[in-house]
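Researcher: Quick test of sequence recovery. Tokens follow.
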């Protein structure tokens, strides 16, 4: 068979029918979700294909309770999740970013809201805010805390790096390069600049997230700029 023939191309790139895990990493940048009369939350706009009988429903502003309404309205999170329900294979991706599948066992972690690709219905999500003007300027104000037992999928630009946090060794990160951290950590936002420097977008050199205690922080080799949705 000619290695450049259409037959060879299809054989090389086709979906593997033997992989049927609930959350399956079909390609480094593509997640396959195998639904069997189930529902799952995915990032709005992340669906790139599906096979079977799957219906989609955008999350409303009141989803998750009235307590989250204000935070969702400010952050734009109320328009960013899509519920997929039914039976079949769902394929999701996000701008060519790498996908990592995690399974929580009565655990929690915090993820930058833009880096949540999908999570199981059994996972509780809550938007958390870092109450500092530095968070608005540096893009690190809103995060999603995921907790419970079930599958989640997060995305990163390139290969991420995990930094360990200990009481004797706090970790400082650029908010735009920070993807996730262990749920027991509460970061602080700090600035090394004067008030006059707040005009314009702050960089990681001006604004940092400080993590103290015991845990870990996941960073990516890329500064992703976030804007509040209107």
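Model:
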């Amino acid at each position: 068979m000619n290695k450049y023939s259409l037959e060879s191309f299809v054989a090389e790139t086709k979906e593997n029918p033997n992989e049927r895990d609930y959350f399956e990493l079909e390609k480094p940048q593509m997640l396959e979700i195998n639904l069997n009369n189930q529902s799952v939350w995915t990032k709005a706009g992340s669906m790139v294909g599906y096979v079977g009988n799957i219906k989609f429903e955008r999350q409303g502003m009141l989803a998750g309770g009235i307590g989250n309404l204000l935070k969702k309205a400010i952050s734009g999170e109320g328009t960013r999740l899509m519920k997929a329900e039914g039976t079949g294979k769902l394929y999701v991706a996000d701008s060519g970013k790498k996908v990592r599948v995690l399974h929580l066992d009565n655990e929690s972690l915090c993820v930058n809201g833009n880096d949540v690709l999908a999570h199981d219905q059994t996972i509780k999500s809550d938007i958390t805010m870092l109450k500092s003007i530095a968070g608005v300027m540096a893009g690190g104000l809103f995060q999603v805390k995921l907790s419970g037992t079930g599958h989640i999928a997060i995305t990163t630009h390139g290969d991420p790096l995990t930094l360990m946090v200990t009481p004797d060794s706090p970790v400082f990160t650029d908010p735009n390069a920070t993807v996730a951290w262990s749920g027991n950590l509460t970061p602080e936002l700090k600035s090394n600049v004067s008030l006059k420097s707040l005009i314009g977008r702050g960089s990681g050199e001006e604004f940092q997230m400080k993590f103290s205690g015991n845990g870990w922080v996941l960073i990516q080799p890329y500064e992703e700029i976030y804007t509040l949705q209107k």
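Residues 19-219 form a domain with the Double-stranded beta-helix fold (CATH 3.60.160.10).
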